UniProtKB/TrEMBL annotation, chain A:
<dbReference type="GO" id="GO:0090486">
    <property type="term" value="F:small RNA 2'-O-methyltransferase activity"/>
</dbReference>
<keyword id="KW-0694">RNA-binding</keyword>
<comment type="similarity">
    <text>Belongs to the methyltransferase superfamily. HEN1 family.</text>
</comment>
<keyword id="KW-0460">Magnesium</keyword>
<keyword id="KW-0943">RNA-mediated gene silencing</keyword>
<keyword id="KW-0808">Transferase</keyword>
<dbReference type="InterPro" id="IPR026610">
    <property type="entry name" value="Hen1"/>
</dbReference>
<protein>
    <recommendedName>
        <fullName>Small RNA 2'-O-methyltransferase</fullName>
        <ecNumber>2.1.1.386</ecNumber>
    </recommendedName>
</protein>
<dbReference type="GO" id="GO:0030422">
    <property type="term" value="P:siRNA processing"/>
</dbReference>
TrEMBL record, chain B:
<dbReference type="GO" id="GO:0031047">
    <property type="term" value="P:regulatory ncRNA-mediated gene silencing"/>
</dbReference>
<dbReference type="GO" id="GO:0005654">
    <property type="term" value="C:nucleoplasm"/>
</dbReference>
<dbReference type="GO" id="GO:0051321">
    <property type="term" value="P:meiotic cell cycle"/>
</dbReference>
<dbReference type="GO" id="GO:0034584">
    <property type="term" value="F:piRNA binding"/>
</dbReference>
<dbReference type="GO" id="GO:0030154">
    <property type="term" value="P:cell differentiation"/>
</dbReference>
<feature type="domain" description="PAZ">
    <location>
        <begin position="272"/>
        <end position="384"/>
    </location>
</feature>
<dbReference type="InterPro" id="IPR036397">
    <property type="entry name" value="RNaseH_sf"/>
</dbReference>
<dbReference type="Pfam" id="PF02171">
    <property type="entry name" value="Piwi"/>
</dbReference>
<keyword id="KW-0694">RNA-binding</keyword>
Length: 418, 852
């Protein structure tokens, strides 16, 4: 009974602690499972079982702090290829897939069922097709052991091993550095593991998870880490997440983290020997639409051009029938004015000024023309197309141009104003 | 548009508790109203013993993305409800054979695929309990799926009910799973049922399997269908993307299990709500922007940029900006800007945009909590066609051109889908583990019944084309016509000359067909709806036979106000013509002919007939349509023939308050129609055949229990000794099967009069498909007929051919139409009332087709 209450309690707390918010999306359901599966390794789970002692709660939950730590590393170092070893329920990958700099994201785990079950969480959503990313992104989930070498994991910029090593027995732990540091040899490795110094704050003397083979003190971890780093030519910095409560600062963070960075820019190993073995089994793979893909690029360009042309056309139409329009409210405090920034306000931005320098749109008869040079001055289009020739190429066969191909041609009056 | 939902959203958003924008809960009362409509079907299974079993009873999940049957299952279950109504076994004359015999056999290709299961195949249903009990559905699933005993088995599990294709060794199996925290959870799996492949539950499981398979083929489920984003059709000038995809279903047809797929397109707009708003703001100007914006956006469905969810916009909160904060579940405050940056690495460009408010439907039926989501316009894509797009000819044309598929094109898409299913490794694996075999496309034999002859004044002729005999009509006298002696024409000053020349034309075309038109009184008025109405009120007297209005524009208010006044307040047949139509050069004669024929009908005339072998038959069409203005109001139309030749009609219509599209007051209508018949024919008809359109899924039972008795009691009450015999046929224009004929190397639409009464029909019903219309481009949709009640005992062949004959009798179109004429009349009548008049038409007009 006590156990049941406890569990119930925890489930309730899961709800409280965990829900990120619902601003627009129902992350709740999603996060709940993340929490449940991840909270297996969240310390406060154990603590609760002895109700007399003070419960240590982390806010945000510890597992989230760890993911946030990796996310911060990504934001800071902008890696292109990132792997998560022991990715489990792929929660970290779900967070990282939104990072614009990443082009390849890999998860490896020994539990095939969980990868299969969770793979679909990584697939591109409808919005990714309508508004594609700037860079390609390929996500792959491999079923396999981190202790086996697979050449598809060579050449990574960041490899994360979050709460992984404490699940190894001593034999496996001995093999681990050779594979990850020696073979994969990524530019950066982040390893997190429980800090047993912190365990003194917990009531029970057991490990935080029944599958843990060991839990290291800071000294033990740092010794191991420095040793490995020296051996494979990495530097290492130590940090952690899960601040200790006031008065117990000397135990250090609940989770200790080592960030390893490769010392020498190993240019020779950059020439990757890709004809190694494929040991891992691909469980799931997906490729995101991106502007690198010609069909998506052309599509985005076309839509942007239509949008800009229509916008200019609208301005033109307004000025043509100015007298018919009601005078704009002169009241500066008029609340409606602030609803949307993107209104014909007299303040010119840099981009607007640049735009002013380009040839003006014009009308001939009932046709409205916008010179390509003006269109390309629109920053986003300029960024995607580069120059007028490229733009013209993109628009060929899709958008009507004038006879010398220097301007987009549309009807001045659209029949269907909805 | 739901005004109530909006008010509710408003009320809540602005209530004091809205300070924490997070999750706002409201009391039970307002929501239960809102949800009861859509989730009524699930209320019946609240019989479980524990809370959890209540929640999951009857619902299943596909097991991967966690989409529960519960959420999307409404339709499936309603279809299932229909299938449980076995009407055929009560109809002795078709119990053994419901197939017709006349006509020439024709080989047809369908969009149905054989789905084979081994003879002894069974589905095993288990009940799973957890000790200690666990509430989270995902955790329940995760724990069970982690067991090796089950990992390689084909399974579907929703947290409570587990389906397996292979029996477990023991009837009750106890498994324990250890969470990584070291807690042991005991799971007890108990066998509850063994189901044969024909069981409705299996059909549900098969549907889930195919949902999974289509997802494996990189398709996205949006709503009920599956779409492929990798091959979009782009219409950039209208900011539209069309995603091709399929509507799929698995069901038991005549003798076997079939998988059906039909091509479908999802319309997505390449426009965020913010872009739409900005655009609108430029168009409307500032002063009326918020109102216009709300008017145009509320009720639309948006798709969020960062996940696959769709939301309905219920309100716009202009007071909240992205820079404002909201409270997360953990109690911390965060601004929307920071939230989206942190969560999705999205930078909002416009910090002044308002937020959209959407009321979230609670997934749990028993839950009383209303949740609201705030959405950022910049991160929401619009879906569906823009509001007034249907009147945008260019846009509709562009969409139609892209989506209309030739028979061959459609077949190619289907073949590719079948190929993908058979080739994809995961899809094949899924089918194999369940023991299913995806077979070939089904062909069947239909029959083409002989074409009908048209009877026009004294002679019978075989039209040159059965699809359109308007040319044949020009020189022939119609069956009967009243001459038009006293009538009014109301037009604007500008349209005077065009009106004059039109009237000349009308007289000219009227003479050969036997319709005499005298000179009308012409009234010139100003160009506004009020002036037209005023003139009508002033000049219409009881002598006036008909009022014609030459409208200066297709502004709805002209039409609506005129029709409302002249069909209810002062019942006189009316004819509205757009001045613009009369300006079309070179088409005047054919336009005038069409209008002349319409006017004849409105005055009670008869145009043509077909040969009806049954000498004393009344046919009835019933349709139901939702009122465009008043929510909760439906319009029921009832149109009955009142002569044996089936050329004269009695039309009644009523507005009724109801949530289901089930007609009330049919008894009164039936008595009225029979009395009218009696008056004209001095006796009652021997047979009555009712065609009922506008039937939703899952309503067949209600029809049988509620509408048929009403009709029967009407029949009994109106007759003294022997009552006429009654048959009731449900007519559906939308159905899954499509039929194509192979000619040489290509595929074509089947010929007119093709009947299918085997293979794609249901064993438990007396049903058939009929193709009675042509499609110049695109693929024909057959019309589906289901005879749910039949005292007449006509041979299936006669029933089918009679139905085909009735498709010839719609006087607004000199050709064949897709449904029997009485259905189309009833539809036209309800449409007029639901869209324009919102008022029951006067009984005085019941004898004429005033609504054409």
């Amino acid at each position: 009974m006590g156990f049941l209450l406890n569990l119930l309690d925890r489930l309730l707390k899961v709800g409280q602690l965990d829900h990120t918010s619902r601003a627009g999306d129902e992350v709740f359901d999603q996060m709940q499972i993340e929490q449940i599966s991840s909270c297996n390794s969240v310390v406060d789970g154990n603590v609760e079982e002895v109700p007399n002692k003070k419960i240590i709660k982390f806010n945000p939950p510890l597992y989230k702090q760890r993911y946030q730590f990796v996310k911060n590393l990504v934001e800071q170092h902008q890696p292109k290829k990132v792997a998560d070893l022991g990715c489990g329920d792929v929660c970290l990958l779900v967070i990282l897939k939104y990072q614009k700099c990443i082009e390849e994201l890999v998860g490896v785990d020994i539990n095939e069922g969980r990868l299969k079950w969770n793979g679909s969480r990584l697939s591109p959503c409808v919005g990714d097709h309508l508004d594609p990313r700037e860079l390609d992104l390929v996500i792959t989930l491999y079923h396999g052991s981190v202790l086996e070498k697979d050449c598809r994991l060579l050449g990574f910029d960041l490899v994360a091993c979050i709460e992984l090593i404490e699940h190894f027995n001593s034999e496996d732990l001995a093999k681990f550095p050779e594979v990850v540091f020696g073979y994969m040899c990524p530019a950066m490795i982040v390893i997190s593991t429980p800090n047993s110094d912190f365990n003194s704050l917990f009531p029970s003397a057991v490990f935080r998870d029944s599958d843990h083979k060991f839990e290291w003190s800071r000294m033990q971890f740092q010794t191991w880490a420095l040793d490995v780093a020296n051996h494979y030519g990495y530097s290492v910095e130590f940090t952690g997440v899960g601040e200790p409560p006031a008065g117990a600062e000397d135990v250090g963070c609940c989770t200790q983290i080592g960030v390893f960075r490769k010392k020498a820019k190993a240019t020779e190993s950059a020439v990757l020997e890709h004809h190694g073995e494929h040991v891992y089994e691909v469980i799931y793979t997906t490729s995101y639409p991106s502007l690198q893909q010609m069909n998506y690029r052309r599509r985005v360009v076309t839509y942007l051009v239509y949008r800009e042309v229509n916008r200019m056309k609208r301005t033109c139409q307004v000025s043509l029938r100015q007298h018919e329009l009601e005078p704009e409210s002169a009241d500066p405090g008029n609340p409606t004015r602030k609803f949307i920034s993107d209104l014909p306000v007299p303040v010119l931005t840099e981009a607007d000024k640049a735009m002013e320098m380009t040839p003006q749109p014009f009308c001939i008869g009932d046709k409205f023309y916008v010179p390509l040079e003006r269109i390309i001055a629109y920053p986003r289009l300029g960024h995607i197309c580069g120059n007028v020739e490229k733009l013209r190429e993109f628009l060929a066969d899709v958008v009507e141009l004038n006879c010398n191909g220097s301007a987009v041609k549309v009807d001045l009056h659209d029949c269907g104003d909805y | 548009m739901s005004g109530r939902a909006r008010a509710r959203a408003r009320g809540m958003a602005r209530s004091p508790s809205a300070a924490e924008v997070g999750l706002i809960q409201a009391s039970q009362s307002p929501l239960s109203v809102a949800l009861s409509d859509s989730e009524a079907s699930s209320s019946s299974d609240h019989v479980g013993t524990s809370r959890i079993s209540q929640k999951y009873e009857g619902g299943l999940s596909s097991g991967d993305a966690g989409c529960t049957f519960k959420e999307r299952g409404g339709k499936i279950r309603r279809e299932m409800m229909d299938l449980s109504v076995c009407t055929r076994e009560k109809l002795a004359h078709v119990r053994d054979c419901k197939r017709g015999s006349s006509g020439i056999p024709v080989k047809l290709v369908t969009n149905l695929f054989n789905l084979d299961v081994p003879q002894d195949w069974q589905l095993y249903q288990y009940h799973v309990t957890y000790s200690p009990d666990i509430e989270s559905r995902r955790l329940r699933i995760a724990l069970l799926y982690s067991r090796r005993e089950l990992s390689n088995k084909a399974k579907a599990f929703d947290g409570v009910i587990l389906f397996l294709s292979q029996k477990l060794e023991e009837k009750v199996m106890e498994l324990s799973s250890e969470t990584r925290r070291g807690e042991t959870v005991k799971m007890t799996i108990t066998l509850t049922r063994e189901l044969p492949a024909s069981s409705p539950v299996c059909i549900q499981v098969f549907s889930i399997i195919f949902k999974k398979i289509l997802k494996k083929l990189s398709m996205y489920q949006i709503g009920r269908n599956f779409y492929k984003p990798s091959e979009p059709v782009e219409i950039p000038q209208h900011k539209l993307s069309l995603w091709p995809g399929f509507a799929i279903s698995v069901s038991h047809f005549e003798s076997r299990l079939l998988f059906g797929a039909d091509v479908s397109y999802k319309i997505l707009r390449n426009e965020t709500v913010l872009e739409f708003m900005t655009d609108l703001c430029h168009k409307t100007g500032m002063s009326c922007f918020p109102q216009t914006c709300e008017k145009q956006l509320i009720g639309l469905i948006v798709l969020t940029r960062y996940n696959n969810k769709t939301y309905r916009i219920d309100d716009i909160d202009w007071s909240v900006k992205p820079t404002h904060t909201f409270q997360k579940r953990d109690g911390t405050e965060i601004t929307y800007v920071d939230y989206y940056k942190q969560q999705y690495d999205i930078t909002l460009s416009d910090l002044n945009q308002p937020v959209l408010v959407s009321l979230l439907k609670s997934k749990r039926n028993d839950d009383a909590e209303v949740r609201m989501a705030h959405l950022i316009p910049e991160l929401c894509f619009l879906t569906g066609l823009p509001g007034q797009a249907t009147s945008d000819f260019q846009l509709m044309k562009a969409v139609a051109e892209e989506t209309r598929l030739s028979p061959l094109g459609r077949q190619q898409r289907l073949a590719r889908l079948a190929d993908d299913i058979q080739r994809n490794k995961d899809a094949r694996f899924e089918l194999e583990t369940w023991g299913l075999y995806f077979g070939c496309q089904m062909s069947l034999t239909g029959r083409v019944v002989p074409s009908e002859k048209i009877i026009i004044q004294d002679h019978i002729r075989q039209p040159v084309s059965a699809a359109d005999w308007s040319k044949d009509m020009r020189t022939c006298k119609i069956l009967s016509a009243q001459s038009l002696n006293k009538w009014l024409v109301i037009c604007s000053n500008r349209a005077e000359s065009v009106t004059e020349s039109f009237l000349n034309c009308l007289r000219r075309v009227g003479r050969p067909i036997g319709f005499n038109v005298d000179h009308p009184k012409i009234i010139k008025v100003q160009e506004n709806p009020a002036a037209f109405l005023h003139a009508i009120q002033k000049y219409v007297d009881p002598e006036v036979q008909l009022v014609m209005c030459i409208l200066p524009s297709n502004q709805k208010s002209y039409y609506d106000s005129i029709k409302k006044y002249l069909s209810s307040d002062c019942p006189v047949p009316s004819q509205c013509v757009l001045a613009q139509t009369l300006n079309k050069q070179g088409m005047m004669m054919s336009i005038a002919t069409k209008i002349a024929l319409q006017m004849t009908c409105k005055l009670g005339g008869e145009l043509w007939a077909v040969e009806i072998p049954l000498k004393s038959l009344m046919v009835v069409g019933i349709d139901v349509c939702k009122d465009a203005f008043n929510q909760g109001m439906v319009v029921v139309g009832f149109v009955a023939s009142i002569n044996p030749r089936i050329t004269r009609w009695f039309s009644r219509c009523i507005l009724q308050r109801t949530t289901a599209d089930v007609a009330d007051c049919l008894k009164v209508f039936m008595i009225g129609a029979l009395n009218r018949w009696y008056k004209h024919n001095h006796g009652l008809p021997a047979r009555i055949i009712v065609y009922r359109a506008g039937v939703g899924d899952g309503q067949i039972k209600t029809l049988i229990e509620y509408e048929v008795p009403q009709l029967l009691s009407g029949v009994t009450e109106a007759s003294s000794n022997t009552s006429p015999k009654l048959s009731v046929i449900v007519v559906r224009k939308k159905c899954m099967p499509r039929f194509l004929t192979e000619t040489g190397r290509t595929l074509q639409n089947p010929p007119l009069g093709t009947i299918v009464d085997s293979g794609a029909t249901r064993p438990e019903w007396y049903d058939f498909y009929l193709i009675s219309q042509v499609a110049c481009r695109g693929t024909i949709n057959p019309t589906y007929y289901n005879v749910i009640y039949d005292d007449n005992g006509l041979k299936p062949d006669h029933m089918q051919r009679l139905t085909f004959k009735l498709c010839h009798l719609y006087y607004n179109w000199p050709g064949l139409i897709s449904v029997p004429a009485p259905c189309q009349y009833a539809h036209k009548l309800t449409f007029l009332v639901a869209q324009s008049t919102h008022k029951e038409p006067s009984l005085e007009l019941a004898n004429s087709l005033f609504y054409l």
